[in-house]
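Thread: Modeling a multi-component assembly for a lab meeting

Hi all, long-time lurker, first post. My supervisor asked me to bring a structural picture of a complex we are working on to next week's group meeting, and I have zero experience with this. I have the sequence lines for every component (1071 residues in total). Could someone generate the structure of the whole assembly? Inputs are pasted exactly as I received them:
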Amino acid sequence: MESSEPRVGVYVCHCGKNIAGKVDVRRVAKEAGRHPRVAVSRDYFFMCSRAGQELIKRDVEAGKVDRVVVAACSPKLHEPLFRRVVAEAGLNPGYMEQVNIRELVSWSTEDPEEATRKAIRYVLGGVEKVLAAEPIEVGEAEVVREALVIGGGVAGLAAALDLAEKGIRVHLVERSPTVGGLMALLDRVFPTGDCSLCILTPMMAEAEAHPLIDIHTTSEVVEVSGSIGDFRVRVRKSPRYVDPEKCVACGVCASKCPVEVPNEWDAFLGKRKAAYIPYPQATPRAYVIDPNACLFIREGSCGACAEACPTKAIDLREEPREFELRVGAIVVATGVREYDASNLKNYGFGRIPDVITQLGFERLINVTGPTGGHLRRPSDGKVPKRVVFIQCAGSRDVNHNPYCSGVCCMVSLKQAEILRSEYPDSKVYICYIDMRTAKKGFEEMYERVRREGVVFVQGKPGEVWRDGDELVVEVFDKTLGRKLELRADLVVLAAGLSPSEGTLKVREVLNVGADLHGFLQELHPKLKPVETSRPGIFICGGAQGPKDIPDSVAQAKAAASAAATVLVRGRVEVTGERAYVDPELCVGCMACADECPFGAIVEREGRAEVVPAACAGCGICQPVCPTGAITRRVYGVEQVMRQVAGLLEAAPASPGGEV
Amino acid sequence: MSLAKRVLEISGQDVTKCFQCAECTSSCPSAGLDGFYPHRLIRAILLDLRDEVFRGDYKLCMHCHLCSVRCPVGLNFPEVAIALSNVETKERGPDNVERAFISELSKRAFVNPARVALSALGVRVLALAGLRGLKLAGMLAESGSVREEYRREVARVVRG
Amino acid sequence: MSGDEVAYYPGCSALTTERPYLRTAEVVLERLGVPHRLIDDAPCCGTVELEMVDRQASRRVAEIVAEVAGGATLVTGCSGCYGTLRRGGAEVTHLIEFLGRRVGAEEIARRVVRSWPVKVAPYYGCQALRPREQAIDDPEDPQILEELMSAVGAEPVDFRMRVKCCGGPILLRRPEYAKQMARSVLESARDAGAECVVTICNLCHFMLDFYGGGILPVLHATQPIAYALGEPIDDLGLEEHFTPVPRGLFRP
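Re: Modeling a multi-component assembly
Sure thing. I ran the full set together rather than chain by chain. Output:
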């Protein structure tokens, strides 16, 4: 081996039993060692441990190797770590290649022999790839010391307030006309039974008054370019048609408005005008005009509200506008919505008026709701004497949401408790599969509610039907061993939680990962719970997965803290793992710029140029370039081709093996 | 081989998915009839309690599929019942109702409902039908006109 | 494979106890100008009983029926046959789906020559709706039959048992219970104010008509459609029903 030729060191990690339990790691190291360019090939229990790192460092520092292949877990987990290790040993981090033989091999391959052969191939592919590696430049960039929080529910508010308290300017963007989110619609909150609005409205007011927080309601983020430290954010503000500065919330507009529509803020159980305020504590405390209902906006007639407004706050000709923000970090708190229970045909929601959801129940007992806090059933306004709750009506169900929404058991317990205390004559049943009361104070509440006389029926109902003005819930009682027909006046479905529309939309705008159900994906379920695949973008609350208020707030505070780490430091490392343009080859067609989801490619002097801080390193530009001028460093064409060649050549002639 | 495995092989239904919510039984129009409870049968299959499974009550499944469209884990109980019946038939032969059908099918490849009812229920059919039974009696002779080659093929298939 | 021609598979009952269904199904296809031929020399589908004996045999029988249809669109009016054949892997369309979706309720409404203004309980039973993979409409809240009945001028009523079982599948094992189920379907329709029930299955019709206790007249869905398209009352086969159908139900 000539000394000028690169010498590769291969380090195969056991990951305890995670890899070594399936893959014959010794054989992998031995096979890799046969490659003519591999100078050292080792295996070790935990490459990521201090001792494992030292193994690599010692070989590099001793001049034994100048290229490193680590065969271990996903690069998503430890690539930054191993890059740092080789850099500390004096090697350019571009000369480290991490090969994933855990997720891609040991965890996903059944047969040990096949797994071992696969691992060998992957490692040899990595060896070939690292032989074609080029150094990457690592730099630093300035950070814009402002933050964007998307979503103004309790998580977004908590994150915004924490950031602002650290002295960071926060832009809070909320789609609806008020901050407060879903929590503002709740009556009381479990397990303590304190009033939801009483603990939320002070946060809403504080955020509104905070000198470092700008709240943008009726606004949506429509485009985000750039990267950690310097995001460019386009926000579209839909017209409110009411100037919140001038509006005194007197309500004259609503009283003059002739149009009435079902009120989404009351789970459609009440009505509102086209000119309305979501609820009295809405923040900003200002009315809003619904353009889909307003006669003037739809067909140019009416306009009574604008005429009547004593402060001339209404402008029915207001247009949407767009503006740009520059921020160093983004916290996503776009939240959840209640699952659409009309999909549960057997329970009759949408067909039978007295079948409502948990959110509907909240509105019917809330003083800001359509009945002024007096429980009245929708069909005839009677006070329900018998109420049946149906748990998992849309959760833990492959036909609806396959996951457990995690909050509905507690919500029903709380609602049952309210019923029993405010309507002591009421008979309350909860039909459930499993009661899940695993957190602090929850089991105690379950016991309290049992002792209140609420009847718990284990068994999932098949159907709800109407018999005269009664409802009948057909359920097999597993304990009793026979079917019951529970007669009721009101049925409440624990419909569970789905990603909100905002959560589903923002994912496209931000280019961050999501799970199968549309909840945003954290970078690592344990160690990076608020980070995303896109550095500088953090997630919290219902956007990340269904959860209750304490968990949402805790996660929001974590996200704010993680965002602040970037913002307070003021500088951010730019990895250099990005696209580069060869000016000799570029013909200036700008096909790459059209494809770039991050707006990171600009035209300069007739050629494409990559803005380093904006490039996310996704590599989409690479295949569209007609001349091969643009390449994504670390994933260059040459490197990938050699990796593939390595994979194929490595196909061993093992006994009975097929390729 | 365990019953669960056999059911999986015949019907593709994996009963290990069941988490015993009993929504099937809540929905079942036959539930309680002769001790028939779909969720309990699934449990008995999982525990490999052959005597309990083959008590025969699964034959009271009406194949109405209310359970299968509602089942939160996506199990198709009627398919499970069919798989159990296939197992049982192989081991013990068809029951008298199945035999009545098989006999019609293999003789004529045509099922005259009046004749099947008479052969499965005997004279009871008249008691059940009352005066209408007379009208039914007139139909006993109907045999359809199934083409001979199909008739032979069906007879071959049905006899196994 | 589905050509322009319909190969109509009536099911054994439509050749014995349910002859008016076959007759009026053919009339409806004829009057709608749908090219069709009757395949009455194909074997029985085997029903769920053959599936219970041997799943594989049932698949083979479905194959034979599909072969008989050749390149034509295999259509059956019997939900029982439809379900068995679908589960057996045959490509088959339910007559009601054909009328409601391929021809379309609007097209039928256009061709109506006389209205049939009756309060009717559209009864679906099970096999046309479930399991989900073979549903001709929503498995629990279908509308297709309501649309067809509205198209001929009827007023559909909602009733609790509209998508429940008629009891037919356990008739031969628990006849008393099966009868009770058939009766409960009709009682539920009667309580909802219906003047009659329409069915879309040979077995459902037999159960309700024969064992339903005469609570309400039970029609095949194709009878009022044929009537509305101009077929004379005398040719609807009303006299063949077990439960008498008052001629007043088809008032001119």
